[in-house]
Amino acid sequence: MAQARGVAGGDKKKVVVITVAVIVLAALVIGGVIWSTSSKDSTDGKVIAAQSGTWGPGVVEKRDGVVVSAGKPEAKKSIDVYADFLCPVCKQFEEKFGGQIHEQVNNGTLQVRYHMLPMLNQRSDPPGYSLDSANAALAAADAGKFLAFHDALFKDQPDEGARGFDKAQLIKLGQDVGITDPAFATSINTGVYEQQIQDEYKKTSTDPSLQQDFGRGPSFGTPTVASNGQVVKLDEGWLQKVLG
After folding, report:
1. Cβ contacts of residue 156 below 8 Å, gap of 6+?
2. pLDDT tens-digit profile of 144-155?
3. Is the pTM of this model over 0.70?
4. Coil, strand or helix at 230
5. Which of 177, 185, 179 is nearest to 51 (CA)?
6. Which is deepest, 35, 163, 188, 221, by most CB within 10 Å?
């Protein structure tokens, strides 16, 4: 009888241990789901911070179709920058080289042509942020505020795979950088440039001169920088090489 009671007592302990383990595991899973959902929706209701910027006086920005140029009229050198507002490597590019680019634009030696593309349009949740933000940036260019808008979207970039900023948030950013024309909000809400942007992306992504080998054969990726029709290798001194 004593032996039987000992076995029964051991079984009860095992049951208690297993039950506790299951409860702990369930709590971890639930906590993980809650954390994941909270992280995914971290942009919900957020105000995108307007940036003071480092663009100097005399820098002119102009929209030409779906390309926005920025620089001073006397600039002799130019680069084309192909990027996606959701691309994390594009943000790294801005963090690492943005200051150098701003300096050369401000002193009148460089003009930049920005091509904002929806390469990662399916990689936000819900899909569509890359296209929405590119369209909004062109609308901001119409109001002369592309550079401020561009810098703010990279500074406050949403996580890839998570919720992007919605159209109302993009409109609010425009207002915060000084856009007062009601046509700006209309352009965002109607997606006025979306088809042009998608057409440009198809053309750009298949352009042989913009292909690079990322380890799996030639393909297009963001960020890509080109000068004189040639892709620029983004090493430490690439900008000085472009400027000659």
Report:
1. 46, 48, 49
2. 999 999 999 999
3. yes
4. strand
5. 177
6. 188
